[in-house]
Amino acid sequence: MNRKGEETVNITEVRVKLTDAKKNRLQAFCSITIDDDFVVRDLKVIEGHKGAFVAMPSRKLTDRCPKCGGKNHLMAQYCNDCGTKLNEKRASRGAGRLKLHADTAHPINSSCRELIQEKVLTAYKEEVENSKKPGYKPPKYEDMDDVDFDDIGEDLESEKTE
Q1: What are the start-end ranges of the E strands in the chain?
Q2: How confident is the model over 68-89, as pLDDT tens digits?
Q3: Both 35 and 112 in a single domain?
Q4: Residue 94: what pLDDT?
Q5: pLDDT value for 23
Q6: Predicted local distance difference test score (pLDDT) of residue 93
Q7: Which domain holds residue 71?
Q8: Are residues 90 and 110 in the same domain?
Q9: Number of structural domains in the chain
Q10: What CATH number is attached to the domain comprising 40?
């Protein structure tokens, strides 16, 4: 329990997949498991100006075409569906920068963010060191490309009938 009498986060596993990015800021994709019960995927280790940090999973923000209603990323110049020219100033600014992504999962307090960052960066550094050893083989890292959506649909159907 923490000082407020609340349960604390227990990160029971961190998985790291290094990128091939020597000149890119994106260094790795990560997933964390909380209490052996809940997985958060698509955390990213990014090399910033002050060192590595952990970016939370996010999605691109979109809006709809005023002509056809098609969804488009906020930086799109033309509608993906009908080709209409879109207003270039439709993205909102937050702290002076264009807001193009929104977190899909994130800690709600600084102590939780610090814990996640500490655990992920420690695992990342260990993986970087392991990758330098002869015969290194990256660990299996399941991402959404590895998921069989037919199995998920079957699981959901079986839950409905139980």
Answers
A1: 11-18, 26-34, 38-48, 51-55, 58-60, 62-64, 71-73, 93-94, 97-98, 101-103
A2: 999 998 888 999 999 999 988 7
A3: yes
A4: 58
A5: 74
A6: 61
A7: 61-100
A8: no
A9: 2
A10: 3.30.1120.40
The answer to whether 55 and 44 are in contact (CB under 8 A) is yes
- Helix-strand-coil split of the chain, %, nearest 5: 25, 30, 45
Instruction: Tell me the C-alpha distance between 54 and 40, whole Å.
Output: 13
What beta strand segments (E) does 49-152 contain?
51-55, 58-60, 62-64, 71-73, 93-94, 97-98, 101-103
* pLDDT band per the 50, 70, 90 thresholds, residue 18: very high
- By three-state DSSP, how is residue 157 classified? helix
What is the reported pLDDT for 122? 97
Cα–Cα dist 73/22, whole Å:
28
